[in-house]
C-alpha cells in the first residue's frame, strides 16, 4: 500500500474508532443523566405525599397526611411543568432503547397531568368507593406499622392531624359544589354512615373498642417497651381519638348532611361543565386507546351476546331446562351456590379461596418465567368498611418486604359472593392476576421507579381479567358451574362497557343501568346496585377491564399465528409483565417487535 494512502487509511480508522467511542460515551452519559432524572422526578412526587411514602414502606413524615389544599395542588402543577422542561432538555436521540421508552412514558404522563388540570374539579373527593373519610382508618390499620415507640407517637400524630386534613377536604367539596359538581344523592347515606361508624365504640362511647382504638391498642401491646410507656401511649391515643379525630369527623358529617340537600339524582358525567369532553378525555386516559363512547358501547353489546351463547352451552351441559334468564335466576337464588352468612361460612370461603391460590402457585412454572418474591394472603374486608367497599380488591405488597400482597374478599353479604365465582375471583385478584402483575412490577430491577409503581388501568385490570381465562386453558374450572362463574365475571366486565357509556354518554339513569345488569347477568341485585353506584362515581374506570383483556388476548393470538411452533406462552407472559405497566399501544409495539425478533 502507498505510504500516504496507508497513513490516510490509518488516520480514517482512528477517526472512525474515536467517533464510535465518543458516540458510545455520549450515549452512556445521556443514559446516566436520564436515569438520574427519572429517579429525581419520581422522588419529587414521593416527597409531596406522606401517604405514598408510607405505602412504599418509608417512615418519613410518618405523622403527616397529604396536603389537600388548592395551593399545594398548584405547586404540584408548577413542578410538573418544570419536570417536563427538565425532561425535554435531554437528548433522547442518544438514549438506549429502554431509557427511550422510559422517556416516552414519562413525557406522556407529565403531559397528561397538565392536560387534566382542566378537569381538576371533575371528581367526587368523598364517595362510597374511596375518600379520606374511609382512607384514614383503613390506612392506619393496614399501612401504619408500629415497630417502635416513635412509630406509635407518629400514629398519634396522624390522629391529631386529622382535623387539618378534614378541613381541607371540606373546602375542596365546597369548591366543587360552587362549580356545580356534587355527588348524586345516593352517595350521601353511604359516606355519612361510614364516617359515623368510625366513631362507634370506645373511646367515643361505652362498649368495645372502636376499630382504630383496637388497632392502636394491639400495635402498642406488641411493642418491646415497658408497661408504663405503653400505658402512656394508649392514654395519648385515646385523647387524640376523642379530641382530634372525633370533632373532625363530626364536622365532616355535619357538612355532608348540608351538602346532601343540594344533591340530585342526575348520575352521569354528562352533567358536569363540559361533561362530554371530560368523559371522552377520561375514556382515552383509562383505556389508552382512541375508542369512542359509541364504539365501546357497541363492543360491549357484542361481547354480551357472545358470552350469553357460551352460557347457554353450559346450561345444556348441566341439564337445566329453561331459558337463560331462568338459569340466571336459578344460579342467583339456589342456596347450594352460597355459604351461610355466618362466621363459619365466611371462614370457609376464605379457606377455600386460599386453597385455590395455593394450587395455582404450584403450577406457575407452566405459565411464567418470572415469578413474584412477595407472598400473598387472603383477607376479609374489615367490618368498618365492608358495607360500602367493593366485592373484592387487591393491595400490593410493601416494596421492602414488610407486608405481603393482600387479596381482600368482601364477605358482608354472602349472597353477593357465590361459590361458583370464587375460583375466577381468586385468580383475578390473586394468582395469576393482580399479585403476579403488581408484585413482579415493583420487584423489577433496571426499571425506573415511576414505571415500577405507576399504572395504566387498562393494562392492570386487563391482565386481571385475562388471568381469569388462562386457568381455563390449563384445564381448571373442572366444575361446569365454576366455568359458568368465570363467564359470569367476564360477562360482568362486558356489561360494564355498556352501562358505563350508557350512564356517562347516553344519559341512562341509575335505575336503567341497574336493570340492564339484573336482566343480563346472574349476579345478585345487590351486586348490580353496588356496581352501578361505583361506575357512577368513577367515570370510565369500568371500561378498562374488557378493553385491556381483549388487547392482551388479541396480541397473544397474533403472536401464536405468526410464530407457530416458536410461540412460548411463558415468554409471552414475561414480555407482558417484565417492563412494568404500559399503555396498550406501547404494549402492542413491544409484542410486535418480539414477534419480529423471534421470527428472524
Automatic annotation (TrEMBL):
Residues spanning the signal sequence: 1-23
InterPro entries tied to this protein: DUF885
Keyword line: Signal
Pfam families in UniProt: DUF885
Protein name per Swiss-Prot or TrEMBL: Uncharacterized protein (DUF885 family)
Organism: Simiduia aestuariiviva
